[in-house]
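Study this pair:
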Amino acid sequence: MGPKDYPSLTGKTCLVTGGTSGVGAATARGLARLGARVVLVGRDRARGEAVVTEIAAATGNRDLELLFADLSLQSGIRELAAAVERRFPRVDVLVHAAGVLLPTRRVTAEGIEATLAVDYLAHFLLTHLLLARLAASSPARILVVAGGAGVIRRTALDLDALQSPREYNGFAAAMRAAVARTLFVHDLGPRLAGSGVTLNAFHPGIVQSQLGRDLPLPLRAVMALARPLMSRECRPAVHLAASPGVAGISGRLFVGTRPVDLGPRFADQAFQRALRERTLQLCGLDGESPAVPDRC
């Protein structure tokens, strides 16, 4: 499906984390092609400015803005949310596409394992901080990048080992974070019913990415060879952001343009609640009033 298959997003504001590379940049490019104002969140100014220039040239859309934040730090996420609320009267689409793949275990300045911080907690915290703005902009949509359904189903998640305290494996840590994100979507999505906001996860497909930039040289070389074969736009994310056919659907994982059933673990409300409570504590939200009190 191409731009002509979706309604124009002119007048809509779309915020994309991880927007200066990989899935985020691919999603931003597709949203810009539909006429949206796209706000890209990244860390590197030079890379961000280069991506904005490239997207403007490719799409003809110059309604593009940059925000900078360190999503490994909750203080940075809170500053980002405050900046969004100051600068943008509405947020119609929030796309969480930021992620890291770290070969060795790292701990942030706030004492949190870095893969968990960026790949899961950042999505959870920013969603909660911007829920009121999204609800005020309704109908609004939140999209969270996930992974393939088969891998998500097979990956275990131990709530007592969220921060990988034992032997660390970067791929395993990233997959556990993907499962946590997907459980978050299955938990919060249905509870947003009636708010005018929907929340879904998506498998991005094979998209050009810088995710492996911290991997050992041989693996980086393999990924570089495969890069020309990868897509430069993320059609599943654009579909979820723009298609009238998914309006009102919330709390699902989409592969391509279709939601998939992940099985009983992702319908286990007790486990979802336990993960939610752990995450609220890790994000320092357990003592705060949530943005949508009846549902969050």
Summary: The mean pLDDT is 89. DSSP finds nine helices and eight strands in the chain.
